[in-house]
Amino acid sequence: MDTLTEAEMWATARNMPKKGGKHAEMGKEMQAQCKRAKVEEARSPSVMNFENPDSLFGSFISPIKQEMFFREYWEQKPLLVQRNDPLLAAYYQSLFQLSDLKELCSQGLYYGQDINICRCVNGKKKVLNKEGKVNYMQLKKDFDQKKATIQFHQPQRFKEELWKIQEKLECYFGSLVGSNVYITPQGSQGLPPHYDDVEVFILQLEGEKHWRLYKPTVHLAREYNVESEDRIGNPTHEFILKPGDLLYFPRGTIHQADTPLGISYSTHVTISTYQNNSWGDFLLDAIPGLVFDSAKEDVVLRTSIPRQLLMQVDTADSTKKLSSLLRRLADRLENTRELRSSDMKKDFIMNRLPPCLGCDSDPLTPGGKLPKIDSKIRLQFRDHAIITVEPDQETSDEIRRDMVYVYHSLKNRRETHMMGTEDDTTSEEGTSQTHGLRFPLSYLDALKQIWSSSTVNVKELNLISDEEKENLALSLWTECLIEVI
After folding, report:
1. Rounded to an integer, what distance in angstroms lies between the CA atom of residue 427 and that of residue 406?
2. What is the C-alpha to C-alpha distance for residues 395 and 405, in angstroms, rounded to an integer?
3. How many CB atoms lie within 10 A of CB 228?
C-alpha cells in the first residue's frame, strides 16, 4: 500500500537525478555560488554539545554563529558548511549508515510505514515498494540492481543519538523536528526537483552527494510540490556534500540531488522543522479564542449579522463592518496579557519526543522526598511542559468555566514520533490524549511562580491555604515535573 503522502509533506531532503557531467571536477567558481563556511582544521568543531538546547544548536551549525544564522540565512537563503573534519565525519557516520539496515530490518520494518524504495525516472518519481514487511535481501537487491534510493522514515525511533539531537532541537525551536535518511547508489537519484514545506538541515553521513538548488517559485511554501525541469531554470547553487558537511535551506527552495559516478553510495539524514508553524498558522489558532473572550465583554461583537448575509453571493457591503470589528479585536489584543492557543501548543507537546534519558533507562517515576509545606522545590524538564488556560474539558455544562492545564511530554513514546500512528495515549473514542494536570484558574499565578523561578518555597506559593499549596506541589511531583531540594 502506498502511504507516501504524509512522509512527503514532512520529510524533506530528497535524492535527485544525475544529469551527467564530472561532478568531482567542479571548479571553484561553481563552488563559490553557494554561501558557505570553510572551517580551518585548527578550529574544527567537536561532536555535539548536549548541555542545553542552545549549546546543541550552536554546535550543530558551527562555526556559524547563531545570531548570524538567523540574521542572514533563516527563511532567506541556503547555507553550506563544508568542514573537512575527520572527527565530525566519523560522528556523522555513527548516526546512521547503510550497514545498519540489516539489523533494523530484523526488528520488523514495513514498506510505506518505515521504508520507501524509489527512483526518479524521466523527471518523475517511481515508487518500487513491495507489500508488507521489508526483507533485507530484497531491499539490498533493489538497491544494487535497480539503483533505487532507500528512504528510512524517522530513524530517531531506533537511533539514540538522533533522538538526543532532535529532542534538543525541538526544545530549541519549540516546534516538531522530524528526520529521514536517504541512501542512494552511484549514478542514481531518488526524486525529481521539488520543494518542501519545512526548514531543512541536511547532514552528509557517508559517501558524497551532488546537490543543485534553484530559485523558489513559492517563497516559504506551505506545501510540498514537484517542479518540472523546464520551469526551474539554472541552479542558483551547485556543490558536493561530503561526510561532516551540513546544508540548510528554507522551505520553498527547489532542490534535487544525485550520487556521482565513482562514489559507491551516499547516505544523508534530513532533519526538518517548522511545518505549519507560521504567523498565519498561529493566527488561525489564536483568533477563535480571542473572539470568544472578547464577545463576552463587547456587546458590538454580540450584535446580529445582517439578514440574509449567509444567502448572499456578494458580501462586499459587509467587509467594512468586518474590518471595523477586526480593528476592535486588534485594540483589545494590545491590552491582552494571555493569548489563548487552542491547538498548536497541545499538538506540539502531545507529538514531540520525550526527554532522552537513554535507551536502557526506566520510565520516569516520582523520586526523592515528598513535597511538604516547608519544602523548597525546583521545576524539572521545563522545556517539556506548557501551561494553558482553556474551558473545562470535563464538564458538559452549557457554561464552561476556564481551567488551567499543565501538559507535558515526559510520557510520550519515542517509537511513534512523527509517524502519525495511534499509541497508548489514544482514548476509547479514538482521539489522542495529552499527559498532564488540571487545576482551578486560581492556581495560575502559583504555577507561573514555579515556572519563572529557579527554586521556590512551597509555603510562598500564591495560593490561599497551605492545603492548596501542598496539593499543587504534590500533583506536579507525581508527574515528575518538580523535585524537592
Report:
1. 19
2. 14
3. 10
Q: Are 201 and 48 in contact (CB under 8 A)?
A: no
CB atoms closer than 10 angstroms to residue 320? 9
Are 160 and 356 in contact by the 8 Å Cβ rule? The answer is: yes
DSSP-derived secondary structure for 355-395: P---TTPPPP---SPPP-TT-EEEE--GGGEEEEEEE-TT-
CB 170 within 8 A of CB 57: no
Please give the Cα distance from 372 to 395 (Å, whole number): 31
Least Cα distance to 152 among 93, 88, 98 occurs for: 98
Who's near 29: CB < 8 A, 6+ residues apart? none
Name residues whose C-beta falls within 8 Å of residue 25's C-beta, 6 or more positions apart in sequence. Answer: none
> Could you check whether the bond before residue 243 is cis, i.e. omega within 30 degrees of 0?
no
**Taking Cα atoms as reference points, which of 201, 248, 222 lies closest to residue 95?**
201
Residue with cell 521556590: 456
Sign of the dihedral through C-alpha 324, 330, 334, 340: positive
The partner residues of 213 in beta bridges, in order of sequence, read 237, 255
What H or E segment, with its residue span, contains residue 291?
A: helix 279-297
Residue pair 281/220 in contact by the 8 Å Cβ criterion: no
For strands 237-241 and 376-379, give the pairing: unpaired
Give bridge partners of residue 38 from the DSSP assignment.
Answer: 82
Select the more confidently predicted residue: 325 or 10: 325
CA separation (Å) from 66 to 56, 60, 148?
11, 10, 37
Rounded to whole angstroms, the Cα distance separating 14 from 270 reads 8
Look at the block and give the residue holding cell 533522538: 163
pLDDT digits (tens, 9 = 90+) for 272-290: 999 999 999 999 999 988 8
If one counts every other C-beta atom within 10 angstroms of the C-beta of residue 213, the result is 25
CB of 346 closer than 8 Å to CB of 434: yes
CA–CA separation, 390 vs 295, rounded Å?
Answer: 16
User: Which amino acid belongs to residue 144?
Assistant: D
* Distance (Å, whole) CA 54 – CA 47: 15
**Residue 388 to residues 37, 171, 345: CA-CA distances in angstroms?**
41, 18, 8
Q: What is the pLDDT of residues 196-226, one digit of tens each?
A: 999 999 999 999 999 999 999 999 999 999 9
Residue 471, SS3 per DSSP: helix
Cα angle 153, 247, 46 (rounded to 5 degrees) comes to 95
Least confident window among 205-219, 244-258, 391-405: 391-405
